[in-house]
Design a protein that fits this description.
Number of domains: 2
Largest sheet: 9 strands, mixed
Number of helices: 4
Radius of gyration: 36 Å
Strand content: 25-35%
Structural class: alpha+beta
Number of strands: 21
Length: about 375
């Protein structure tokens, strides 16, 4: 009697362990499949950078220099490192003021090149203004607060021939208050998707006529007559692809834009390495759910099958061989648990073989 009770308890424990194992596999597979699919298809946020970087020249000086304003950043992080560089050439020393508004303003501004440097002078103190620019339609575009940074390039010489005509350079770098690149994120930002969007401030401005003043900052300014603007996103890095860009990059496959007077680029990116990894995990979770579902069906089949009568079980325990007759009736071979168990083992083996083979094929494909 004690052996019978102990056997029943052992069967209950085995059933509980089996049900728990199958439930865990099925739950993890379903949750992983859903999370991986949502992450893979999560669209990048539609962001718009709030701010402008505009180069002004003192209104009292003639517009005879050739100037380039370039914005650079690796674009990563919530407060990306951004640099602004001014290159100039012409018949006279060059002076200009870089006006940063909105989130284009930078903190902890420092010179971007060490002293001494040809055509470079140390960065002066940043001057802030708190009211809108006075005059023209321009008043509607940069209303609010901002900062003015003066650049003096005393060693400017006539423009050279070729792709690098500029003879003097100055620059600053600091941290922006708004991220340049954002990607789809999961709940509470615990993970991020492979699709990202990159948005830059407006660099430069179309040369309107007239002079302007900044509230709280002494002096009058005007826009350069000959200005080239460049935005260098320093990428994309290996594993990233450009889905779309406005305007089109000046260098195909690179986050590099150039134009005249003004530019405000944006791009949609995809991390191809993350996409491939997520696709592999989706297959793994799908196979895991298939294996868990098959095991669950086997357990349900065992659960709903009617139990044998106690007397019949006692008679079968007295058999020397499973095939010997009882009361003249030959009993069937005892295969109660053999078929489902063997089936589950083969199913798990085939599933694992498929997962390993699929992942190895994907890895060889990416290496090639």
């Amino acid at each position: 009697m004690r052996q019978q009770t102990s056997g029943k308890n052992n069967r209950k424990v085995r059933k509980f362990v089996a049900w728990s194992f199958v439930a865990a596999i099925s739950s993890i597979s379903i949750a992983g499949y859903v999370a991986s699919s949502i992450t893979l298809n999560g669209p990048p946020p539609n962001q718009q950078f709030d701010g402008m970087a505009i180069l002004f020249e003192p209104a009292s000086e003639p517009k005879v220099d050739k100037v380039r304003l370039q914005a650079d950043s690796d674009a990563y992080g919530n407060e990306p490192l951004v640099s602004y560089t001014i290159d100039a050439c012409g018949p006279r020393p060059y002076s200009a003021d870089l006006v940063l508004t909105g989130n284009a303003q930078i903190t902890s501004a420092k010179p971007s090149r060490p002293v001494p440097y040809n055509g470079y002078t140390p960065l002066p103190q940043v001057q802030r203004f708190s009211s809108s620019i006075i005059g023209s339609i321009f008043n509607l575009l940069v209303a609010g607060s901002g900062e003015v940074i003066r650049f003096d390039l005393p060693e400017v010489s006539p423009c050279q021939q070729g792709d690098a005509p500029y003879t003097a350079t100055a620059g600053i770098y600091g941290f922006a208050s708004q991220p340049l690149q954002q990607s789809w994120s999961g709940p509470w930002g615990l993970w991020h998707g492979p699709h990202a969007s990159q948005s830059w401030p407006q660099v430069g401005m179309f040369p309107y006529l007239g002079t302007f003043a900044l509230g709280g900052a002494a002096g009058n300014w005007t826009l350069p007559g000959s200005l080239t603007v460049v935005v260098d996103g320093d990428g994309p890095n290996t594993g990233w692809s450009i889905d779309s860009s406005v305007p089109n990059p000046s260098i195909p496959g690179m986050l590099f834009w150039s134009g005249t007077s003004e530019i405000s680029p944006s791009a949609q990116l995809t991390n191809t390495a993350s996409v491939a990894l997520l696709q592999d995990w989706i297959v793994v979770f799908a196979v895991g759910f298939g294996i868990g579902g098959a095991m669950l069906a086997s357990l349900l089949f065992e659960w709903i099958r009617p139990e044998e009568h106690h007397s019949k079980a006692s008679d079968q325990r007295n058999l020397k061989n499973s095939g010997e007759p009882i009361n003249g009736v030959r009993q069937p071979h005892r295969m109660k648990h053999w078929v489902p168990t063997r089936f589950n083992r083969w199913l798990v083996l085939l599933g694992l073989t498929f997962i390993v083979g699929y992942v190895r094929r994907r890895q060889r494909r990416h290496k090639s």
